[in-house]
Structures are given as structure tokens and as C-alpha cells.
Amino acid sequence: MPKASSRPPARKADPALQSLLDVHEAQLSNGLRIRLLPNPQTPVVSLYTFFQVGSRNERPGITGISHLFEHMMFNGAKKYGPKEFDRVLESNGGRSNAYTSNDMTVYYDDFSSDALETVLDLESDRMRSLRISDDTLASEREVVKEERRVRVDNEITGILDEELGTLVYKAHPYRWPVIGWMADIENISRRDCEEYFRTYYAPSNAVLYISGDINPKKTMALIRRYYGDIPKGPKPIPVIDAEPAQKGERRAVVRHPAQSPSLMIGFRGPRATEEETLVLDVIQYALNKGEGSRLVKGLVYEQQVAVSVMLDWGWRIDPGTILFYLELKPDSDPQKVEAALYTELERMAREGLNERELQKAKNNLRADQLRELGTNTGRAHALGHYEALLGSWKELLTLPSRYAGITNEQVKATAAKYFAPERRSVVTLVPETDSAANGAED
Amino acid sequence: MATRSRATPKTKDKSAASRPLKLPTATETTTSTGLQVMAAERGPLPLVAMRLVLRAGSATDPKDKQGLADFTVRLLRRGTERMSADAIDEAIEFVGASLAAGVSEDLMSLYVTTPAEHFPAMLSVLGQLVREPIFPEKEVELARERSLAQFANDLDDPSTIADRAFTQELWGDHPYGHDVGGTASHVRTFTREDVVRFHRERIGPKGALLVVVGAVKPEVVAAEAEKAFGGWTQPEQLELLTVPPLERLAQAGRILLIDKPDQSQSQVRIGGPGYRIGHPDYFAATAMNIALGGGFTSRLVNAVRVERGLSYSVGSYFDTMSAGGIFAISTFTKTASTREIIDVSLGEVGKVRKGGITPRELKTAQTYLAGLYPLRTETSESVASVLADIRVHGLGDDWVEQFRDRLRAVTPKQVKTVAAKYLYPQAPTMVLLGKASEVKKQLKGLGPVTVVPVSEYE
Q: What is the pLDDT of residue A10?
């Protein structure tokens, strides 16, 4: 698997993390996987349900269905009808929300620990017997359209991000936005949703994570009682990564009313399971974490060519995107800023990091991991996140030793490979003064 | 498979959620020059959270220098007598610690979290930042340039501009009547001398409080605080500011329509007077607000989002500060629905103002808030913040312990009283941001409308 590393990575479990993560595991005969993590410190519990479905599993015509469907999961099942899920949850001291990404859909509840059985009843009811009515679908469709307007159509980073996706990916479903195209949101049918539910929301496609003030044995018995009789689902169709190799830089210009130009730049990265993903984490920290990081210090403070710079290396199942967003000053020359960024990236490929920068990145990765594990919700989410992307939550335990083993040779090799111009896509926002020319949708 | 939602009070009494909720014991000391220190030991993570609170919020900004407190706090880390900006960044960031700083209307706060073994070093840096910043001329200029660029770019962020205008409309000339970041026209005039003076007059041990929570012994905290802050005197620090209460809303009944013609949505803000932090109405008003516009099952969410699909997000809130507060609704919708969302929202508010909420709604709100309240004490950062708030705002040492009982004691009659008092008994102030040519014609009969271009809010 690792191609760039000169030696096999150490994969030792971290003792401090191991002591924090006393996880009880099980799998029901219908395929539902269960991970319980007791922590009596405060009388609250977080429950996460991870479904292995996201915009990656969609096709043109129904883009955005995973996200629209996420909303529908709150709109009534057999036992708890429309409006009942939140009503029962809140009146028992709990709250709930969910999010959809390219790769997964995640539902979560935080609640007073004596509401555990009620929450399991609610969650298993909608996994077993969701009911989708034309009325709730029609209303929820309007809500999602408003969500799209606020996040994409009236938000500059949303517009640029959408443009960038279609540049970076030609064939892969990562091409379209998670929220979907407006016309698809308008046309997704009840039947599409029902089919989606049968395919992807079966227990065999889900994992439950419960962290907090619980008794593992009693909790396991409750889960068996509430979820045990939900039938297993069909095996979802695998997603094919048909993305062709990129043969050269890709560029797009967006004209939109704005005060300043800005830049969004994406480089095609590896998949989460590749060793280089961790090397890119180290690179991301060295380039962009904190005021003293190379890009903030260089572009914002020293050269003063950017107001802010953001770098996001988001792990994904299939090869993801290393994303840069640069907010500029009015009257800036975006080409000059681009050149300044590439100079930093080339330097990374040529020289890598000095010993202190490398150690600093590792120290911060470690500290952030501990902070993430400081809450029930953080712990449950971390287990789910790593299991969904790396295949097992236990990978989390070995991350510290794998980060610790990363060498400067790996940093240089990884930067040279991934920051190559032929992996690059660039979207430039050019401020448009004539606002009438820009008819946002409807 | 009966649901637990009808569980009897008897079972509730035995439940985990009703266990007494206690903060970790805080040890209080004072440094030789008068800085108050609170320390609470707490595991299991090998991390320490600190919050240093200074009575230098945006209400202390000079009248013609709005945003100066916020501007100053960001410059504290850009150089001290002993350390350059780079050296400060390196000292904090190398070990995996983090520093955040900001101001609210009332307070300036610096937050540090650090791996426990670096606590003494990080506390020492924190001491230097507030005691001996040098504000290099170049850093002041650069900060001003960046701020001005940010103000310009903010014009592209509809929600930010609507909020900024809303604050001005609600509070007018009151010390709370400007955004904590100020405005471009004021920030443009900031000089190094302004910042130096603000530091000399407002940032000192008088009224300051250091709270430390995490994997460190209280006696270590006391000793290290003396080392880091022992010599901190600020002879020219002014007396702490007393902010006057709000007499009446500056622009009650007025509708401000901010024109941003490229928008396909309108941002909507509606507001009126509320109450100060620590006010006796807090519990009844909070319970009432959960039912009206707090949780996912609230009347506003139901009417606006669930029933009509008018918005992705709608909510109401009380914003409380030391001298007063506001009650407000915040939402957005497509341009064509602007009037509808206002009418529906005001209709829901009117129903609660006249009729209160149902006993079932009150019970739900109480259980909901009480069930989730322990989350406020889940991390060392949140414990440090709640300890600081208790001290600074005089909430009483039993605030956390008594919170759920006080909430559960709220009666329907109390809710009716606060509903009549705060839910716009007089015409509220409204701020709308969107495509004015389409929105204005929808506003007939709502009140006087003033249209201004978005550029006024830079």
C-alpha cells in the first residue's frame, strides 16, 4: 500500500489512547455493528449512527439525494410518525442532528443518560420502518433548496467549491456537490427516496457508536431488543472509481459580484487508506496550522498578499482533494498570489521541513487528537470517522506512532508528487460589478 | 417496547440525569498585585485549559474608536518586550498549545489550552502578552490593512452585514451599539498610540481573573501565577466601566432594508429589548424561548420550516450582557417569501405573547434543557468558562449545582409574565438584507422602511 515511504510504518497502539478508548464491540446477526464506550464522568450520552452512503453513491439525475434523504429521516416512521422523532427526543432531554458528506451520512443524538432506551426506540424505529409521504417530501425539498441558496448561491466559497469539484473530477461522483444540483433536488421522487432507504439504510450498512454514561452490558441487551429484528439489507452496489488520470492544469474563472478576487485551488490527493494521507496531514499542519505556519506567516504577515489562507486536506474513501482557499484584498493580483503559493509548495517538495517544524506538526497532531477525544461526541465521532474511512476504528490507536514515524524524506516525496502542476485545478473569482448580469437561480 | 416518555417522577428521581451536578472544587488565590486566580484539577486528559478575563470589552471602546478593544487583543501576540511575534508563535505552537483571544461587549478574554507538561511555560507567555506588549508600528499597520480588507470582503457575506446593522439598530448610541469589531471608518483611524493608550487604561489586574482547569494541581497554579503575573501593576488603569442600562430601543418600529441586488435570498432579523445577564427572569424566559424558537420542535421551526418550507434555519434567542439584553429572531428565505416569513414569525410570537405556552411545552422545554445542561461541564475549557462567568457576572457559586432545579421550578404563570414582557409588546426593530427592488413592495403596512445600500455597512 505505501509507495512513497522508504520503510514500513510503525503500527503500535498508543497506550494513552488505549486507556481512553475501552471499546466494547459486537455485531448482530442482521449485520449491524456496535461500538460502546462507557464514560461515567457526566450523566450524558452521545449516540452516532454511521451509514455508508453519501454523494459518492449517487448518479446524475438524483444528485443530492443522500442529503435530501438525511432530512427525510426526521420526518416520521411507523411507530413515531411525522414530528414525533424530535418531539419525543426533546421531551426526554435530548437533541439530534445529522450531516451528509461525499462518503457517509451520520446521525447523532446527545441526551441525558436516562433517555437511552427512548433514543434506541426512536433510532431503531426509523431504521426499521421509515415512511415517506408526498407532503413531507414536498416541504423538505423547499427547506433543502433554501439551504442550497444560503450555502452555495449566496455564498462565494460555495460557488467556488462547486466550480472546483467539476474541474478536479471528470468521472467520479465527487464531481457534484453533496447538496446536489438545484434541478435534481427539485426532481427527486418519493420512489427514489424509498429505494434509497431500502438499499443504504439497512442495519448491514450501519454502525452504532455510543459513548457516555452507559452500562455496556445493559446497553447491548437493549440494542438487541430494539434492533435485533430489523431485516438485513441487500449488499449495495460498489462505486467504481473511473476517474482518468489528469494530464495538465485545469482552470476556470467565476464572475460574480464581490469586493475582492479570491482563489480556490485543488490538487488531486490520495485515498484515506494510503500512507501518504498521513504525510499530507503533517504537511497541512506545517503549511497552515497556526500563526507561525509557513503559509500564514509567509503570505499573510510577511508578503501581505492574502487576508487569510485556508488549507483543507479532507480524507476520503476514493482519492480526495487537497484544497486551498485564499481570501485576497480588493485590487489584488490573483496571479501574483498564486505564484507566491506555488513557491511555498515547491520549497516543500525540494527541502521538506526542518527538524523543528516536523516535530511541531507531530506535537500538534497529537494535541488535537487528545482534544478531539475530550467529549463523548468527539470520541464517538472519531471512532466512526476512522472506521468509515480506514476500515477499523482501531486504526485510531496506531495513528500517533504512524505520525511519529514520518520522515522528512516522505514529506519531500509526498509534496513533490501531489503538488505537481498537472494535478492542479484553479478557480479564480473575478469581481463582477454589474450585478444585473448575474441572475442567481429563480 | 413502551417508550420512556411517560416515565413517572419516581423513576426519574433515581435516574442518572438527576444526580447532583457539581463543578470540580475550585481553589481561589490572589497574586501579590491583586490578580484573582481560580484553579480546579480535572482529568483524565493530560491537558490544561486557561481563561484570562479582562474587563475591557467593546463597551470600553472610545466613542470615535469603535473596534479598538478587539483590534488591541489581536495585537497582544504580535510582540512583547522579551519576545518577537515569531518567537511567541513558536513558543505556543511548537508544543501543541493553542491561544485564542477575543472580546465580547463586556469582556476581553484570552484562552489557552496546552499539554499539561507545558503549563508553566504557557502561563508565562500569557503573562507577557498582557503585561508587556510593545505593539510594533509595523504590526499595527498590517493589522489595520488586514482589517480594512476584511471589512470590504464582509460586504459579500449577507449574514454578517445583517447582524452588524441589527446591533446598531437595536442599541443606537449605547456602548453596546456597535459590532465588537467596529467599522471600517473607525478602524481606518487607529494608530499605535490609540492601542498603547487602550492597553495602559484598560488592560490591568484590576477586575481581572485567571481561571485554570485541567491536569494540574491548584498549588502549582498559584505558584506559577505569582511567577507569571506577580509584578503586574498598571497604575494608569482606569476604574472599571459601568455600562448604563438600555432605556428604550433606538429604532423601535423601524424597518431597515439593506439593498444587495445580487441576492436570491433575504436575511431577516427582528428584535426588541430583553434583560441583563443574571436577571431573575432568566429561567422562565429561557424555558419559554425553547418552546417558541429554541429547539427543533419549537413553534417557529414548526411554522416556518416544517409546515411551510420557508427556510433552512429559524430561531429566536435572548442575548444577555451585563447591562441589558435583547430578544431576537434570526432567519432567511428566498426573496419572494420575505413578507410571508415575517408575518408567520410575528404571528407565532404574538400567540405566545397573548397565550403563553402549553403545560406540555413547558415540561418539554424543562426536560430538554435540564437533560443537556451537564454538557456545559463536559470539558475543561467549558468548566473554565462557566467558572469565569459565575465570578465575573456574580451568578452565585451554586449556579451550576442549582441550575436544573431552578429551571424545573418555572411555572406556567411565570412564563406568561415573561412572554408579555419580552415578546415585542411594542413594535420591534427589523433589519432585512436582500434585493430591495423586490423586497420593498412586500413590506406595505409593516412600518416605516428605510433603504440603504450594503456599502454603508463596511
A: 59
pLDDT in tens, B144-160: 999 999 999 999 999 99
Min Cα separation B319/chain A (Å): 22
Alpha-carbon distance of A267 to A289, in angstroms, equals 19
Q: What is the Cα gyration radius of chain B? A: 24
Res. A5: pLDDT tops 70: no
Q: How far apart (Å, rounded) are the C-alpha atoms in residues B213 and B436?
A: 50
Is A368 in Cβ contact with B96 (below 8 Å)? Answer: yes
Q: Is the pLDDT of residue A94 over 50?
A: yes
The predicted model scores a pTM of 0.93
The model's confidence at residue A4, banded by pLDDT at 50, 70 and 90, is very low
Q: Do A292 and B93 touch (CB under 8 A)?
A: yes
Indicate the domain borders of chain A.
20-227, 250-437
- Give the mean pLDDT of chain B: 94
Q: Give first-to-last CA distance, chain A, whole Å.
A: 48
**Which residues in chain B have Cβ-Cβ distances shorter than 8 Å to A225?**
1
**Chain B CB contacts of A115 below 8 Å:** 4, 17, 371
Question: Which one of B307, B372, B374 has the shortest CB-CB distance to A95?
Answer: B372
Amino acid A433: pLDDT: 74
CB-CB under 8 Å, A95 with B309: no
Taking the C-alpha atoms of residue B318 and residue A332, their distance in angstroms, rounded to an integer, is: 41
CATH (one of 3.30.830.10, 3.40.50.1370, 1.10.10.10, 2.60.40.10) for A20-227: 3.30.830.10
Cβ neighbours of A435 in B, within 8 Å: 261-262
Closest CA to A281 of A390, A159, A421, A145: A390
Which residues in chain A have their CB less than 8 angstroms from residue B379's CB?
A: 374-375
How does pLDDT run across A171-187, given as a tens digit for each residue?
999 999 999 999 999 99
Number of inter-chain CB pairs under 8 A, A vs B: 222
Instruction: Name the pLDDT band for B251 (thresholds 50, 70, 90).
Output: confident
Q: Tell me the pLDDT band of A14, cut-offs 50, 70 and 90.
A: confident
The reply to whether residue A226 touches residue B85, judged by beta carbons under 8 angstroms, is no
Best of A112, A325, A377 to disrupt the B interface (most B CBs within 10 Å) is A112
Cβ within 8 Å of residue B390, ≥6 positions away = B396, B397, B399, B400
Sorted by where each starts, the structural domains of chain B and their CATH numbers stand as 25-229 (3.30.830.10), 255-457 (3.30.830.10)
Query: Has residue B13 got a pLDDT over 70?
Result: no
Please indicate whether, in this complex, the C-beta atoms of B367 and A92 are within 8 angstroms of each other: yes
Q: Do A370 and B332 touch (CB under 8 A)?
A: no
Task: Tell me the shortest Cα–Cα distance from B272 to chain A, in angstroms.
Answer: 25
Of B34, B82, B352, B58, nearest to B210 by C-alpha is: B34
> B221: which 3 cell numbers?
497554579
- The reply to whether residue B262 touches residue A43, judged by beta carbons under 8 angstroms, is no
* Order of strands across the sheet that contains A24-27: A24-27, A33-38, A206-212, A44-51, A105-112, A94-100
Q: Which segments of B24-90 are extended strands (E)?
A: 27-30, 36-41, 47-54
The full length of chain A comes to 442
Residues 2-31 of B with CB under 8 A from A: 3-5, 7, 12, 15-19, 21
Residue in A closest to B49 by C-alpha: A371
**In chain B, which among 281-310 make CB contacts under 8 A with chain A?**
295-297, 302, 305-310
Residue with cell 494530464: A247
Span A405-425, mean pLDDT? 98
Percent of chain B whose predicted confidence (pLDDT) is above 90: 92
Tell me the mean pLDDT in the region B216-223: 98
Question: Domain A250-437: which CATH class?
Answer: alpha beta
